[in-house]
Amino acid sequence: MRKKQQRLAAQRARAQYRDSCGRFASARYRSVRVDEKTYKIPIDDKIESGSIVIVGATREQEQKVRRYIKYGFTKSEIRAATKEEPMLIAVADLEDAAGGYDPKNRMIVIDPDYVDAPMTTVHETVHYIKHNGGDKHRGPVTRTHINARDTPAEHNLEEASTTAEAVARCAPLAYQTPSYYGALRSRCTAEEMLRQDRRLFVGSDGRGLKGKRAIDAVEKKFDNSEIAKLQAYGARENARDHSRTLRR
Ligand SMILES: [Zn+2]
């Protein structure tokens, strides 16, 4: 890891607080918001070298998370997203979510129960690289909508397009979570719709796509996907209709 990255990571991890005796001490935690809830994540582990820093994980959990990221993303995508500071990922208990990305604190949290689900790690990493990696190659569907996430339509599109990209990148790894497919109203099961989208983006037995290929597949085929029908967060139109208004 570059020196500057190390210094920035250390600064972020160490906030000053007063201990029970009133002395200033170093607080090795960071507050993170996931689904409107705030969590205090201890950052006791020493900041390891590399562009991805994982805290709160056992060795085995850490290896899994790193393996999924290596599977789903190119080195240059990770490099572009970690130019300023390392990608910080915590494995920590979440109340109602499998994972989350807090754009303000630029931190990913994965619930330990979902460390075995590649879709969770890849989904949150897609949010991260969209938000931090720049919009090169990205069109109106796949670019980050986080900066405008206060509007329900943009929030909904951010989740639908991130899910689509995670499906394209994860194929053919096992999908243990219904992800946002569970929120679609349909006669098909979440798993059936997820497999249908995987065929659409990647083909029946293709390896997962990375980099520009993953982005292009979602940008071109999103309108025909099941996940484009997502209409959550009080959005007045589904993700497909909203992305069409952005492309006009
Ligand atoms: Zn998400």
Describe this structure in words.
This protein has 248 residues and is an alpha/beta fold. It folds into two domains: 1-133, Zincin-like; 135-248, no CATH class. Helix content is 40%, strand content 15%. The chain contains eight helices and eight strands. Zinc ion (ZN) binds next to helix 4 and helix 5.
Keywords:
248 residues; alpha/beta; Zincin-like; 2 domains; globular; binds zinc ion
Question: How would you sum up this structure in a few lines?
Answer:
This protein is of the alpha/beta class.
> Structural class given helices, strands, pairing?
alpha/beta
CATH class of the largest domain: Alpha Beta
**Gap between N and C termini:** 42 Å
The biggest sheet, with number of strands, parallel, antiparallel or mixed sense and barrel status, is: 4 strands, mixed
Mean pLDDT: 86
Instruction: Report the principal-axis shape.
Output: globular
Report the radius of gyration as a whole number of Å. Answer: 18 Å
According to DSSP, the number of beta strands is: 8
Trace the largest sheet across and list its strands.
Answer: 5-6-8-7
- Helix and strand run: HEEEEEHHEEEHHHHH
Tally of domains: 2
The name of the CATH architecture of the largest domain is 2-Layer Sandwich
Helix percent band: 25-40%
Ligands present: zinc ion
Predict the CATH topology of the largest domain: Zincin-like
Strand content: 5-15%
Given the structure, what is the number of helices? 8
Low-confidence stretches: 14-19
